[in-house]
Amino acid sequence: MRNVDHIQLDALEKEVLSTSFRLTLTRISVLVGMLFLAVVAGVSLGPVVIPFSDTVGMIAKAIGFPVNTEYTVQHWIIVTEVRLPRVIVGGLVGGALGVAGTAMQGLFRNPLVEPGYVGVSSGAALGAVCAIFFGWTAINSWLLPISAFVGAIIAMTTMLAVWRASRQRNVATLLLLGIGINAFFSALMNIMVATSKNEQELRSIVYWLQGGLEARTWDHVGLIAIPIVLGAIGLSLFGRELNVMLLGEDHAKSAGVNIRFMRNSVLALTALITGAAVAVSGIIGFVGLVVPHIIRIIAGPDHRFLLPASALGGAVFLILADIVSRMVMQPVTLQVGVICAIIGAPLFIFLIFRSNKGVRV
């Protein structure tokens, strides 16, 4: 009788796992489909509107598929050299911020945390502002993203070094250090803004700090694609550990999780992909806050699904925000960081109210 019951339980467990896998696969497929539609819309829409069918044909041809499609030379240049790299950069940046925000919220067990809270974004911003203020961009334009990336790494390294030297190595101390680093870096940037030598330099600093995707090229795609993709995959591998961390560090340790290794790895990977994203886009807020909330409401708190889904959701969110920035006030183009704040801030306030009423987010 016990053997029969055991067989029935095994069969039931396999059925539940199979159903869960199919549901996860369906949700991922939906997000991939949404990402494809967002890419097509992002490439098609703008001051010059290109039919969706022509856009799909040109993208397929650019990838290498033998398709027969008619297009003008002007449309080909717009699609392949102007809009497609911009949309891909937007997708990579949005995906990086989405998955980094999810990882940070899981690590700190706080749904209001995002990568900027630990000084990574501020460090990258300070590096970029230094490149503009000291004229390094006149030597080589690539010194701006390189400086931003180096700034992000220095900020994370400094914060971890101070945290390890402190007596209280807990999550609250880490967040407080991040807040202090953000305040210090912001003060340094304000000094540079106040002492800018000319109006053009000041406008460049402010424009970059608002976040944008203008004039992004295939070189920018090549700069960030590998670190963001590999970093996002690396974070997704910690889905099980982040699930266990939701129960507390004591439960995680009893379950065999190496807390120190997991925490350092998640923080390092978050610094890598956030620094790479900010290096080419400037500071874009609310993506790492809002997207994980939306995905969590739709699909639950399982980080094994939540991490890759947030990467896809973040990519869709930022591409759509970039479309709005180009279309809402033509011929004026708004910064995508401004659009994300306009969309994300009210949505985030709404999510906080839902959380305060006891609704799971």
Topology:
Elements: H1 2-44, H2 52-63, H3 73-108, H4 120-133, H5 136-139, H6 143-165, H7 171-194, H8 199-210, H9 218-236, H10 239-245, H11 249-254, H12 259-281, H13 287-299, H14 303-327, H15 336-356
Membrane topology: Multi-pass membrane protein
InterPro entries: ABC_BtuC-like, ABC_transptr_permease_BtuC
Subcellular location: Cell membrane
Q: Show unreliable segments.
A: 8-13
Proportion of beta-strand residues: under 5%
Quaternary form: single chain
Structural class estimated from helices and strands: mainly alpha
Helix content: over 70%
How many DSSP helices? 15
Q: How many β-strands, per DSSP?
A: 0
Q: What is the succession of H and E elements?
A: HHHHHHHHHHHHHHH
Output the radius of gyration.
Answer: 22 Å
* Termini Cα gap: 43 Å
Largest sheet: none
Q: What is the average of the pLDDT values?
A: 82
Identify the overall geometry: globular
Verbal overview:
This protein is mostly helical. It is 78% helix and 0% strand. Residues 8-13 have low confidence and may be disordered.
List keywords for this structure.
mainly alpha; 361 residues; 78% helix
Précis, in short:
The chain is mainly alpha-helical and 361 residues long. 78% of the residues lie in helices and 0% in strands. It has helices at residues 2-44, 52-63, 73-108, 120-133, 136-139, 143-165, 171-194, 199-210, 218-236, 239-245, 249-254, 259-281, 287-299, 303-327, 336-356.
